[in-house]
Records
---
Amino acid sequence: MTFLAALLAWLVSLSLTGSRMPGRGQVPALISRVVARLGGSTWVYCLVLALPVVVLAAILHGLDHWLVTFLVGLGSLVLVFGPGDQADQLKPYRQYQQDDDADRAYELAVDTFDLPAGLYEGGAAQMDEALKLSLAYQLLERFFVALFWFVAFGAPGVLLVVLVRHARSVLLQLPAESSAAASLAVQVHHAINWIPARLLTLSLALVGDFSQSFAIWLRRIRDFELADRALLETSLKVSLPENQDAQRPEDVLALIKRAQVLWMVVIALATIFG
């Protein structure tokens, strides 16, 4: 049922848009309230991660019914995958650029694709370069990391991924006295992303320019300290066969979509022959 839940969740996400995804900001808001009330200590961080995951795992284990497990897994994946309308959102972004409306293009990229806020004095080319990585990293965290831990641990694994991601964001915004918890949150987030990020970059090599990408992947696979964002940026630059200066966000999205199909095929084969 793991593959069926993942496949259905992916297909549902492709039909969703951002306007039809209610409640996506509730988890970070809830974590912020808990941290504000209990403080930003390390034990609070561990409690925020462990308690909901243990409770969900205990409930699913106690009910022990395939339909409940399937529906909870499906629902959690749909919420984490989010809307799969990146291709549709890139169209108005590109139109704003063609209309020389850099401000609206920037606002759309920040709100929709998690583009880092800042100055892009290089114009559309510089913004496109940053958007390529932001788009790929967004899909890494929303799709590939969540899918990997769902296959490993089911819905509790997905919940853990969500809590790790949002707790890190909340703790990094706190004052310096919470630095120990924030440092731990960064390390746990890096550990959660480590395997999926390297599997994704291997997938990009398989569906893209294999010769260059695979050589870089082999050199960096054992570097535990290498940030997943840096690894993904390097892989993207060499996975597309075209000139790096001619690569567009649309090309990166197409490459990531091929990697998504590859992951689904691998999970299907593992389900059939496993």
---
Amino acid sequence: MFLFNGVVLVVALLAGGPWAFAQSQPPVLQALTESLPPLNYENDGKITGFASELLDLMAAEAGITLQKQLLPWVRAYDRATKPGDTVLYSLVRTPERESLFRWVGPIGSRRISLYKWSDRQDIQLKSLEDARAYRIGTTLESAATKNLIKQGFVPMPLDGAASGLELGVNDEQNMRKFIAKRFDLLVSLDWAAAYNAKNAGMDPAQLVPALVLDESLSYWYGLNLAVDPEVAKRLNAALQKVRNDGRYTQLRQKYLLKASK
């Protein structure tokens, strides 16, 4: 009987089942994110939002402890790409980033557009080429910004040029600049544009999509390559469970659909 129990224990450990995982030291992940409401943001001292709450559910299912920190995107990205037990979100999965992270997800879809104010009837974009004549507000180090630069758009110099990219640290700052007429077009997620406009005291209906830049990619969680691959497996399995039991849909209705109205 003793030998049989020992064999069962060894098999359980080799199988890497939930019991075996629970017996080992539970990993602690430094969860790094930026202010990108309603996906991730700080409210009353707590980091919350759709992606943050979803990660909480997944970590609880997987037996993983999180320590969240809200940082400017450049700092968060820099830390997440240096060796350490970190997870970065909400992260666009691009070919350039593919080998830099262990991927968990997807979290949700991503639709990026160039927005103008409704009173700017002079701005009529038929293609991205038409946007080269305008000042464009976008976020430093974002995937959308990198894609624009790849296509020949350049940051505006300090001499107040009539066209080019003005790089801001986050979407909230960009919205304030947009309201102040610092630039002509704003790069933003569709639901985030409405969310930030409303929070800044503007009617979101005054924002008009001038051109869709991209709707082919999704947001993911990016684990540092130093993190045990088993952690990524556990989190992906937990995400699938949360999708299957309806909690994912409930969260989406709580955050994303409300924000897109």
---
Amino acid sequence: MSQLNGNVYKFLTPLFFSGVSFCLSFYFCILGVSLFIYSLPIYAFFLLLSLFLFYQTDKNLNRFMKMGVTSFTQYSFYHNCIGIYLILSFVLFGVSVAYVPFYYNGGMLFVWYCAPMSLLCFISFIQSQKRIKVVKKQLQNQNLNSK
């Protein structure tokens, strides 16, 4: 049986690179350079990689919960993911709505890259909400049993 360790935040590195390439795409769009066409797929790739790593970690933590192993590490992981994915979902949705008026002047790419990613981040937010309720309930049961 593998041990539950504190290294559950491995999804943050691709999320950081996703944010950097997303900011670069804004910068390129403001400059009027068409390089944002190339930086948006990079942003999407890193965000999808981050979501994949989040779901792999979620799967491993769920396996630990089924075996009866719960810890504060699991609670803090889901608590942090709730904040990260909720903010990310709102930001991406806001960007996709903001670029609707510029749909035919390059905004089409921002709308079609940000709207689906916003939905995926919102699904991850909901998944984290569900898991944190289960972890919180199990931690409370452990505290009651230990007293």
